[in-house]
Specification:
mainly alpha, 7 helices, 74% helix
């Protein structure tokens, strides 16, 4: 992929900033309240940064009108707000809380285990283990919700200006995918050498 096509918010380690609130939820019992809220602040800044990047791409590269740029920004903010902050944070919060209650109930039956591995520590480990498992299902669910609710609503409210095919986010993703495919084809051995007989 050409350097100009690299999405810093989705193709580089910067994307991991979107997981900070989930880490904050998993370690909530061990960290200061300010650190907990800071984890959400970092994740929120990541969401705004990604939406801003998408808006810039829509305006400068795709040359879309201002309405579509605003629509693209709004969709990206809603998607990131749900898929990166609200839903994962809630899931990890409830998972940690639920496991803590369960472990406390089981503590009298396993006193030696609980002494070596306290319920709060177990709950944190379970919360951390859940993070990679919930990312893909949540992303797909939010994708479906955006396609089923947000885009039809925008098209209904602004029938003369809305892009019926969705916002520029789909076009941006498609353009980056096509660019990556062309680059991979160009760099592959089969692209530079004839197949052997």
């Amino acid at each position: 992929m050409p350097e100009s096509e690299t999405d810093i918010f989705r193709d580089t380690p910067v994307r991991y900033l979107g997981y900070t609130n989930e880490l904050g939820e998993a370690f909530k019992v061990f960290i200061h309240r300010r650190v907990y809220f800071a984890s959400y602040l970092v994740a929120g800044c990541y969401c705004v940064g990604d939406a801003t990047s998408r808006a810039h791409r829509a305006y400068t590269d795709l040359k879309l009108p201002l309405f579509e740029v605003a629509n693209t920004t709004a969709e990206a903010l809603i998607w990131q707000g749900l898929a990166s902050v609200a839903i994962p944070g809630f899931v990890i919060n409830r998972t940690v809380a639920g496991y803590t209650r369960l472990a406390n109930r089981l503590a009298p039956r396993f006193p030696t285990l609980m002494a070596r591995l306290p319920p709060h520590l177990q709950a944190t480990a379970v919360g951390l283990a859940c993070i990679p498992l919930i990312i893909s299902p949540i992303d797909h669910a939010v994708d479906s919700a955006i396609a089923a609710v947000y885009r039809p609503t925008v098209n209904a409210l602004f029938p003369n200006t809305a892009n019926e095919g969705g916002t520029a986010n789909a076009a941006i993703s498609k353009a980056r995918t096509e660019s990556a495919s062309v680059t991979e084809l160009h760099d592959s051995p089969s692209a530079n050498h004839a197949p052997s007989s």
